[in-house]
Amino acid sequence: MLYWLTEFSDGGDVFNLFRYITFRAGGAFFTALIFGFLFGPPLINLLRRSQKQGQPIREDGPESHIETKAGTPTMGGALILGAVLVSSLLWARLDNPYVWMVLFVTVSFGLIGFADDFSKVSKNSHAGVSGKVRLAIGFVIAGLAAVWAAWFHPAELSNQLAFPVFKDVLLNLGIFFVPFAMIVIVGAANAVNLTDGLDGLAIMPVMIAAGTLGAIAYAVGRVDFTEYLDVHYVPGTGEILIFTAGLIGGGLGFLWYNAPPAAVFMGDTGSLALGGALGAIAVAIKHEIVLAIVGGLFVVEALSVIIQVLYFKRTGKRVFLMAPIHHHFEKRGWAEPQIVIRFWIISVILALIGLATLKVR
To answer: Among 7, 38, 3, 1, which Cα is nearest to 23's?
Structure first.
């Protein structure tokens, strides 16, 4: 919205600053951060009053959670969504199709998560909305986003899968691009959802991944950068940096209240929305494979659940003491902060590897 102030610029005044994506990204970051600090306390108080017993705690989960996390309200992801939405609408170019595509996915998956959280707290049950229903709606949303992205991608990149490191390698997926992109978006949403099991565990890796994808989006959206780095040019994707800056600002504002011991959980409202956003960004910037590297922690968390379920069905035995894998380490005696911080470190390492793919050609 504020981009339109450039119409009053003669090229040498303060209004000219709004032409620069980096300046507006900074504005989005601080807007979202302030939003989180201002609206965090009243939102948490509202959630506490409306959720008498807080988020239902699974009885088959770690025993310590029944004592330490009982009564903590959920749906705190609404704080992040509000911060991202306000900052993006305020600072991004509203004529950019990729910004709207990512916002569409984020808000839509947030609504799915909200419905699930509301069902849980209202019935005081961890069951929530049927998993099949959530997946079905998620795939519909992801399908619309995939068609959206393919429509606005340059002709030479539309329906193509780009590979990191190999600069000239493109795989034409044709009609299979849409289902592939759907799997990326829905898979990312559910992987982040599975990771959100300890205080502060999910939000920091999400911010790290978002910052990495935002930097890549800015690079592939500039023709001079793509020529230097030998990556595919996707015009218009630079504006996604503003969205990711807002996500990081809103994420930090949320983390202030989610740091151990958490005053609020993000719930499915936040985890599904943020995971879907990461998947949508990766599809928009043609870096779906890089997302699997940058978000490797989420991949491992999801795989640990899949492996546990399949192996248990075949043998009646468990590979891990408990899945997702962060609960496995809890069962082995690791303290919660120890798990969280070590997983953060892993996320940073994976993000650096993901960024390195821009230059290693």
So the answer is: 3
Among 29, 122, 72, residue whose Cα is nearest residue 267: 72
Letter for the amino acid at 262? A
Q: How confident is the model at residue 65 (pLDDT cuts 50, 70, 90)?
A: low
User: Could you read off the pLDDT of 11-59 as tens digits, one per residue?
Assistant: 667 888 889 999 999 999 999 999 999 999 999 999 999 887 767 666 5
Q: Supply the DSSP symbol for 12.
A: S
pLDDT (0 to 100) of residue 261: 87
DSSP-derived 3-state class of residue 161:
strand
CA proximity to 18, closest of 99, 84, 94: 94
CA distance 361 to 338: 36
Burial 97-117 (b: 16+ CB within 10 A, else e): bbbbbbbbbbbbbbbbbbbbb
Residue with tokens 């069905």: 313
Predicted structure pTM score: 0.94
Instruction: Write phi, then psi, for 218 (nearest 5 degrees).
Output: -65, -40
CB-side neighbour CA atoms (13 Å) of 134:
25
What length is written for the chain? Answer: 361
**Greatest C-alpha distance within the chain:** 72
Distance separating alpha carbons of residues 101 and 147, to the nearest angstrom = 10
- CA quadruple 240, 241, 247, 249: dihedral, nearest 10: -150
Q: What percent of the chain is predicted at pLDDT more than 70?
A: 94
Q: How far apart are CA 120 and CA 295, in angstroms?
A: 28
**Alpha helix stretches (DSSP H) within the chain:** 21-50, 63-68, 77-91, 97-123, 131-152, 177-195, 203-220, 223-229, 240-258, 267-284, 288-294, 296-315, 325-331, 336-356
Mean per-residue pLDDT over the chain, rounded = 92
